[in-house]
Amino acid sequence: MKINLSTLIPFKISQLTKLKRQLVDQQMQPLNLSRTQWQVLAWLNILGTPCTQQGLLKALDLDRAQLARVLEYFDEKKIIKRTALPDDRRSLSITLTPSGKTLLKKVEYLMEQESDIMLKGITQKEKELFDSLLHKMTENILSSLKDHE
Questions:
Q1: Res. 90 pLDDT band, cuts 50 70 90
Q2: Torsions phi, psi for 82 (to 5 deg)
Q3: Nearest CA to 110 among 44, 41, 16, 18?
Q4: pLDDT for 96-146, tens place per residue?
Q5: How many folded domains does the chain comprise?
Q6: 58: domain range?
Q7: 127 domain-assigned
Q8: 3-state DSSP assignment of residue 79
Q9: Are the beta carbons of 143 and 136 closer than 8 angstroms?
Q10: What is the CATH number of the domain that holds 99?
Q11: Cα separation, 90 vs 26, whole angstroms
């Protein structure tokens, strides 16, 4: 029996992710931020600053060179400040500057708009169920990955 891949949940999640990326890319255009740039800003917010480049690498699905280019750009634009760590001169501490914090607030606002668009017409109960299902799926994948290490 042939399976229609478009009916499987992993395929639907992949399609939703693709559309979500397109939406957020469109929303970030007024800020002149690329997908990689806004993701780095978002993770700086999630991880809290100061943080290290290594910490960002672990959180993001980027290679070292991509992240280095974004951080160099942010440094040039005075969005972040990088300073050597006293106990490890090879590692850099990354901190958002005041203009970086202002930019982050704009990104947060746009991400809230994206959330509103995605969740339009969905009840609070449905949101809670969806969040619970996402959590369970994430745990299942993490467990499977650990089993195959």
A1: low
A2: -110, 130
A3: 41
A4: 999 999 999 999 999 899 999 999 999 999 999 999 999 999 999 999 988
A5: 1
A6: 35-109
A7: no
A8: coil
A9: no
A10: 1.10.10.10
A11: 37
Residue 135 domain flag = no
DSSP code for 51: E
Task: Give yes or no for a contact between 10 and 97, defined as CB atoms under 8 angstroms apart.
Answer: no
Global pTM value = 0.78
Name the helix (H) or strand (E) containing 101.
Answer: helix 98-118
Structure tokens at 7: 């009916």
d(CA 39, CA 65): 15
Residues, the chain: 149
In-domain check, residue 69? yes
Distances (CA, A) of 126 to 21, 120, 149: 23, 11, 35
Coil, helix or strand at residue 8? coil
Is position 101 within any domain?
yes
The tokens describing 61, both together, are 């699905």
